[in-house]
Write a structure and sequence with these properties.
The protein has about 140 residues and is an alpha+beta fold. It has two helices and eight strands, in the order H-E-E-E-E-H-E-E-E-E.
């Protein structure tokens, strides 16, 4: 029987892939987990979940599926959309590495139109998309 997989290493793997890719943009930005620093008005934030466990009868908790959301933040709608596009390209084209796990390629499950966030001043623009990650014991 394997140990019960944790979502946190998977979420950190997503953040690492995004951080590396977003540093290659003409104007580099950062990827954060959970929230952004107030002073950073251009970034991508990874929101994770504990996920769902499943597996075979021999080990019913061997597999994990983790939904995540990427929120791209920009000072204008075009910027937020461009950062969301860059994050999607990085996530869908990179292998996620989690020790002791075989991680399937992520896939996009949903998205929303880019919106203005008036809860912060000055207002920022956000573009959100949801993805799913699945892994099995290595």
């Amino acid at each position: 029987m394997t140990s019960i997989p944790q979502a946190e290493p998977h979420i950190r793997a997503v953040q690492a892939v995004l951080e590396a890719a977003l540093q290659d943009l003409p104007t580099p930005i950062h990827a954060y987990i959970g929230s952004r620093p107030d002073a950073d008005t251009t970034c991508v934030v990874v929101h994770g979940s504990p996920g769902d466990l499943s597996g075979s009868l021999g080990d019913r908790f061997a597999d994990i599926s983790i939904p995540i959301q990427l929120t791209a933040v920009g000072e204008g709608p075009e910027q937020a959309t461009a950062y969301a596009d860059a994050a999607r390209a990085a996530l869908l084209s990179s292998a996620l590495v989690v020790v002791g796990r075989s991680v399937w390629p992520p896939w996009q499950t949903a998205s929303q139109p880019t919106l203005r966030d008036d809860t912060v001043q000055p207002p920022l623009w956000i573009s959100t998309a949801q993805y799913s990650i699945k892994s099995n014991p290595a």
